[in-house]
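Q: Convert this sequence to structure tokens.
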Amino acid sequence: MNNSTLSQMFSLLSKLMEIHGENSFKAKSYSNTAFAIDRINEQIITLTPQAVANIRGIGSSSASKIFEIINTGKLGILEEIVAKTPKGVLEMLKIKGLGPKRIHTIWKEMEIESLGELLYACKENRLKLFKGFGEKMQASIESAISFYLKNKGKYLYAQVCDFAKDIYQILKLEFEPATVINAGPFALQREIIENLAYIISSSPQVISATLTQKHGWKITDSNEGIHFDINGTVKVIIYPCEKEDIGWFSILKSASTSFADTFKKQIVDKNQFKNLSEKEVFSSINWPYIPPFLREAPEIITKYTPKSPIIQDHQIRGIIHSHTNWSDGSNTIEEMVAGCKEMGMEYLVISDHSKSAFYANGLNEERLKQQHLYIDNLNTQLLDFTVFKGIESDILNDGNLDYDDDVLSTFDIVIASIHSNLKMTEEKANARLIKAIENPYTTILGHMTGRLLLSREGYPINYKKIIDACIANDVVIELNANPHRLDIDWRQIDYVLNKGGLISINPDAHNIQGLQDIHFGVLMAQKAMVSSKQNFSSFTLNEIKLYLAKKK
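A:
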């Protein structure tokens, strides 16, 4: 029972009370409790009830409910209000742009209780007849519902990572000595996962009986593998296979459709691959061994060799793009430094939010001076580690950064990012980004499209124009490793590399745990065949100091 879970429960309680039109003061107090929990560095479960009650924004009433959850795993008042809320109304909370007040109107005044009804109402122009719902809002809600429904049943790689490993271990233990192999989109390291797939060298009958009778998994389909439902989580598909065929079969099931189709053309007789491993199968058709994560476009066959220097986790030397409690981060600079050193890093770039990001406690000029003095003092105390003065400077609507040149010149690294006015035409987005890229103080272009996977599509851009502008102006392109972003898209990185540009795998960390997100960026970089020499955050401390000195 961690802080995140507790915060989510109180936030949901607050929203549901608003939706039901209950006491607004109480709803606000539960919202404040959720916010307070998010700001605490210690795990609440380690604190005493009195200590929790003394935390600003919580109080004794909420503290008692927190410990009700800790002791029972439940919150009675939340369970009661959930029970009397239609499932479709609960689902509306997942739609971008629909807050509790609008949902209250939709449910109580429009008498709509499902997303299907709401989408139909949008198409019939019924929403704009109600107060607070104009034509633009109606169109925005219709678009958000369509986006949500299109992506329903899909998950971020990071969301299923631990679950996928747990399932793999269950299958290994259950079917030993049979071979168990990861397959499907997880083996391909895709950013969005629709199912978890595994190959087992066992019969369909044994697999079905074992997993339904011993583990309670439910079979939902038996075409093209055995499809299982595990308590409504991500779909699991198991492909039974004869042991002597597992080499060639695993290639087919751990590849894109186009790669698999190209491979199938090499099969004259399936017996030609009997009892061969994956590597032996590739060798027998004179192909290099292609790792699963690269089995996307068939053209990889001519690009990849076993000597291709693809980046690995241990080749990240520093953390670039991190937020501290000076803006909207949860940890102090010292705590972030400690987290970096524990990972074996050589440096940390502090890039708190700039002054335009008022919603994220962005730093004005006076606070910047204080932070820079603080970092200077801290660096005198650190051995074999450096903290760089950075900023994530907002790109304004006209393409300017939100500090004057005299302020921008005080930073070691400036990450230029768009956070506001995201609804743009391609022409507007291109012009805005290119002007920021051409600013002589811009070091890195942050999360190029502003996308949030499964939540928000990025603004439209001409990738090639933006990448060309970055290379012409010696600006590094961020591969934002936050699993919700993974932006720049790995499919566009090939163009960057071919043009001689640099990417920078950055975690965009807002707490110590967020530092570990660097791993998800590495996975995407591997799909694009990025080497450590082509990644800015793989530069050693001395290399990055030299690079920054030349740029200045």
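The longest strand covers residues 386-394.
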